[in-house]
């Protein structure tokens, strides 16, 4: 079962909800790239109500928090935000918001394309213990760790 990162402290009914893709429910005045990222004003309001919405990060819209606010205003029940891999996890008190990488987001799109009534199940946040996180270079570094002294990075 695919999983993403989330921290949500509100109530969850632990049931299945319909899932829609932002680009598939664009408003009549929006373009597809805005709807793909779920930019405010780009989604058909009536098609969001009661659903979980899949949105993709873009260069202009990088914040899952901003998108969660938009989905909440439109009475959506949740957000799946497909993004560049990151260690940051937003704490959403508005609606459940799961952050996944682009690969999992693309798998969800394939599932949605091959299923008549695609659904997702929202459950309470759980901590997974025992999965080691690999060391990585900070997102702002272009040099990486020192190969001569692996315990220290280049300063």
UniProtKB/TrEMBL annotation:
Keyword Iron: no
Keywords recorded for this protein, A-Z: Hydrolase, Protease, Serine protease, Signal
Keyword Hydrolase among record annotations: yes
Signal peptide positions (record): none
InterPro entries: cNMP-bd_dom, SBT
Alphabetical GO biological process terms: proteolysis
Gene3D superfamilies registered for this protein in UniProt: 3.50.30.30
PROSITE patterns: CNMP_BINDING_3
Cyclic nucleotide-binding domain: residues covered: 1-70
Gene Ontology molecular function: serine-type peptidase activity
Family label: Belongs to the peptidase S8 family.
Protein name: Subtilisin-like protease SBT3.5
Originating species: Heracleum sosnowskyi
């Amino acid at each position: 079962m695919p999983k993403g990162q989330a921290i949500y402290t509100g109530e969850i009914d632990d049931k299945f909800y319909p899932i829609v893709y932002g680009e598939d429910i664009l408003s009549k005045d929006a373009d597809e790239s805005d709807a793909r990222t779920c930019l405010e004003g780009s989604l058909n309001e009536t098609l969001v109500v009661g659903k979980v919405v899949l949105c993709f990060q873009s260069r202009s819209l990088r914040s899952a928090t901003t998108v969660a606010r938009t989905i909440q205003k439109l009475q959506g029940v949740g957000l799946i935000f497909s993004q560049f891999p990151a260690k940051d996890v937003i704490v959403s008190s508005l609606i459940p918001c799961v952050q996944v990488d682009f690969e999992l987001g693309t798998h969800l799109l394939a599932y949605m394309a091959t299923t008549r009534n695609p659904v997702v199940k929202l459950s309470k946040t759980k901590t997974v213990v025992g999965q080691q996180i690999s060391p990585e270079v900070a997102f702002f570094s272009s040099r990486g760790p020192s190969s001569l002294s692996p315990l220290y990075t280049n300063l």
